[in-house]
Structure formats: structure tokens, C-alpha cells
Design a protein that fits this description.
The protein is an alpha/beta fold and 246 residues long. It has eleven helices and six strands.
Length: 246
Amino acid sequence: MDAIKLAIFDVAGTIVQDRGEVLRAFSTALEKHGIAHTTAELKEWKGASKQEVIRHFVRRRAKPEASESAVAAVYGDFRRELERHYRDNGVLPIPGAAETFARLHEHGILLATTSGFYREISELILELSGWHDVFSARISSSDVLAGRPAPYMIFRAMETAGVTSVREVINVGDTPLDLQAGTNAGVREVVGVLTGLHGRERLQQEPHTALLDSVAELPCWMEGLRSDGRNSATAGHAQQCARHTG
């Protein structure tokens, strides 16, 4: 079986903590323009292209052909609110993420990020975290024609990193859309983590290889892949990884 050559990570909720800043920025921008929404609806859009999210809610309130200028006005307010938050408050890494990156690098595995954020904000987050140069590819929704659940960001990360086979790729994320994108891309491993806003019950509804408590468990779980050739991500092995990472 092909060895894993590339590990692709979502950003907010997967490698940096999601403190609700994205949902708050959405709500602030939508409320400013009188656009109805609920928190539950916004949660289901977590991981999507942020501009696509805004377009959905704007056009739902008005008409499907609502002008792009209306979308741009709400999106501009969203961007200003979110960028202000990150510049004022910084980011908090998921505990164990840096150690995971180091261990994967030790095994010759390339790393990449994909994000529903536009490039400026995803680059800002990686700079604030000190991880800008850790990744061989840093792909944002603004780099492709369609964000998640489309697989295009994954394919762009593979292209940038120089990996040609989806059988050599693992995709890791905290949202249903992350799991859907990994499945649509046909990558070898589709791994969900429980450090975002979605619980185990919701993520279990999507096709996946494994659900881990966090990226801190990933190296241990991948050791199982190397040791028996096909770790089925059993509950027992996940629990063993959890104990190992403590």
C-alpha cells in the first residue's frame, strides 16, 4: 500500500482554536444588513468559502439573482470584523499541533493547509501562529473556483506540494464539509477531529476513516497505519492514542 506523503489540515478548529470568532463575524455582518440567520445554520456552513456563505444568505433573503454588490457589502463587513478580531486577539494553537507537525516531518511527510478563509486572513492566522513556513502548500478558498465540499482545494494542495496520487494523501478537518471534501477528493484517509464546533454525533454522519479527539492523536493513529498496513481506526486504537497523548 502506498505510504502517506502529504497531510492536509484545515485551519480554524483543526490546528488553531475556534473561539466562535467566525460565527460572530458572520452574525455581525448579516445583522448589520438585516439578513435573517440562525447560529445552527451558520454552523453547518463552517469550513465553506466565506464568500459563498455570505452569498447564500444574501440571496436567500432577496432573490437568487441578488447583485454581487449586495454580497460584496456584507462580505466586506465580515472581513473587517474578522481581521480586527485576529489582529487584536491573536490565535491559540490546538494543544499538540506543533508536536504533530514535527513528528510528521520526521517521517518525511509533507504538510499543507486548506481553508475556507480568503488568502489574506489564512496567511495572517499562520503568521500569528508562527507556522507560515511549516507547510509546503497553503491553499485558501480564494485560490479555487469552488470551496468545500468541492475537492479542489485538496487537489491544489497536492499540485503545489508535488504529490500526484490521492492514495498518498490524508485530509484532516473539524467540520462535515471537511469530511465531504476529503471523500469527494478520494484521498486515502479522511480524518475528523473534535476540536471544532461539531461534536462526534454530527461528524459520524459523514463518510470518514477516523474521528480523533484532536490532531495531537494523529501521529499515534498513523503509526497504526504503518504497523499493520490498514488501521481501520477502531475505537480501541483511538483510545490508545488518547492515552498516549494524555
